[in-house]
Amino acid sequence: MTRRLSFLLVGGLVLFAGTAAAARLAVTVETANIRSGPGTGHEILWQAEKYYPLDVLERSGKWCRFRDFEGDTGWVHDSLVGDVTTVITTKSNCNIRSGPGTENPVVFSADRGVPFRVLEKKGDWLRVRHADGDGGWIHRSLVW
Questions:
Q1: Computed from CA positions of residues 29, 33, 38, 40, in that sequence, does the dihedral angle turn out positive or negative?
Q2: What is residue 8's predicted lDDT score, i.e. its pLDDT?
Q3: Nearest to 76 by CA among 110, 107, 33, 116
Q4: Which terminal residue of the chain has fewer beta carbons within 10 Å of its beta carbon, N or C?
Q5: What pTM was estimated for this model as a whole?
Q6: Domain total in the chain
Q7: Could you read off the pLDDT of 72-117 as tens digits, one per residue?
Q8: CATH number where 35 lies
Q9: What is the domain extent for residue 133?
């Protein structure tokens, strides 16, 4: 019994440690360079705009290796990201509405891959704002 309990505790700690590293952060500057490795000497793979969400996989000094909504990985400097609740659209032509529900008018539509800051949650609806100031409500099923 003690041996089994010890195994369960160790297994639970390993599982917890694995999930603790997968923090969700977001780009907090207008544009962040995403690099192939942890340092400015590494190649720039692409640039991510403000509010782009990232799941941290590991850290090396002041650098984070992450995975994005498409499964792509890269490195970003700690000074360019923060603990901000954000989402990114995963479908084409996502309706952003004036209120939380399909009965509310569409304010604008967003293509796939547009990041937003989350301001409020109401059931399955999120009140969001883009870095350019445009905002409204989007259904949770349309974002990552």
A1: negative
A2: 39
A3: 33
A4: N
A5: 0.83
A6: 2
A7: 999 999 999 999 999 999 999 999 999 999 999 999 999 999 999 9
A8: 2.30.30.40
A9: 87-142
